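Supplementary Note 3. Input sequence used for the single-chain structure prediction.
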Amino acid sequence: MRTILIPEEKIENKIFLMRGKRVMLDKDLAELYGVKTKVLNQAIKRNMERFPEDFMFQLTKEEANSLRSQFVTLKRGEHLKYLPYAFTEQGVAMLSSVLNSKRAIQVNIQIMRIFTKLREVIANNKEIMQKLNQLESKIEKHDSEIQSIFEAIRQLISIPEKQKRKVGFYTN
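The predicted structure, written as discrete structure tokens, is reproduced below.
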């Protein structure tokens, strides 16, 4: 039996594409796990060897400002004190070994299932796109064949009839 602590849509909405990877931000993960962002980041800093660059990276100022402008997370005039961390799927999985509360484990399981679901959706979309491309090339081939048939028909229609000779006697 699956325990659903958080609606799937809420988790899906917290997954972003950054640097070509699907990631979740530290503040969103902290919210889902029911801890403060500061507590989450302290636990991570105590276990940095578990989080190589392909598991977690810190956003640049530009990336953070871009996210800030998209989601208006701070009030006007406030500044980011710390640059947020972004966690890839593997980084989120590693968090379960750092945060050991029951809630963190259950939420982590949910997040892993959603990442898997997203991978399946993307894989299905790739298959559909390949099939569409194949179909399109077949149609283009048929289109050119049909076009040449129409061209041949046009040529047959446009062949001028031979002028019939008038019957009778002609004088200059």
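The first strand starts at residue 15 and ends at 18. The beta strands are 15-18, 21-25, 56-58, 85-87.
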